[in-house]
Design a protein that fits this description.
Bound molecules: adenosine-5'-diphosphate, magnesium ion
CATH superfamily: P-loop containing nucleotide triphosphate hydrolases
Number of strands: 9
CATH architecture: 3-Layer(aba) Sandwich
Helix content: 25-40%
Mean pLDDT: 90
Number of domains: 1
Oligomer: single chain
Order of helices and strands: HHEHHEHEHHEEHHEHEHEE
Radius of gyration: 17 Å
Shape: globular
Length: 265
Amino acid sequence: MEKIQSAIAKARARRQASGAGVARLSPPGVDAAWSALKETRLVTRDLRRNRIFADHGCAESTPFDMLRTRMLRQMRAEKWRRVAITSPHPGCGKSTVAANLALSFARQPDIRTVLCEIDMRRPSLARLLGVWAPPQFSRVLAGEETPEDHLLRVGENLALALNAEPVSGASEMLQAPSLPQTLDRIERLLAPSVVLFDLPPMLRSDDAMAFLDKVDCALLVAEADVTTIDDIDRCERELAEQTNVLGVVLNKLRHHEANGYGYGD
Ligand SMILES: Nc1ncnc2c1ncn2[C@@H]1O[C@H](COP(=O)(O)OP(=O)(O)O)[C@@H](O)[C@H]1O
Ligand SMILES: [Mg+2]
């Protein structure tokens, strides 16, 4: 375990030396690379139907805006850029939280954000965001296509990496030796301040664990009244062995002033 952790620490140090951390830098070509991405417009009706509110400031976006601010503070302090969003089991609301957070970050004009689908077996971000037939991002992760042609831009400062179809061999794809270079390439191209990865759930396969050494920190989404305390504990412990735990979001709280979201660490 120590060996793995020191390897993770080294990889993270390398990324930070290469300019990670929440700060908007514009190396030459970055603005042009953003402008060149294919633009997609999100439709408010689709977003609302899927409980996505954080594209504008409102009562329902407040829990996400608060979470964003808290995450940003810690990420800036620690020079972290890559955030994994995962949960113990499917259906906790990872993708809903990831999409809301991405749109909340995107309302900060000084922040560039990339939202990446990593739940290869059950991709859902595209449907949640109402983006039909997006380019299949898994082809970029597999090293078959370039990110330039597969990322979609929303507004000026949010890029989406989506999958329309589930991918077979997800586990192998997430452990492929070429994956770290692909992620670095996306970051060199777009110089994002924040990269949010919508991961698979932790307790159904080893897909999530296979990816955690590529991120700086992780957020765990649990489902109120469904996820057990034991499962939260187990996942938090496993996350803490691999990365930095930003906190636990308790989703689908029925009687809560924060519109169904609680957050604690
Ligand atoms: N706070 C919430 N209250 C009620 N339903 C929610 C909430 N968050 C998510 N959902 C619903 O729960 C289902 C699973 O959410 P999703 O984000 O797809 O979960 P996951 O990505 O963890 O599998 C979706 O139908 C979503 O609309
Ligand atoms: Mg999902």
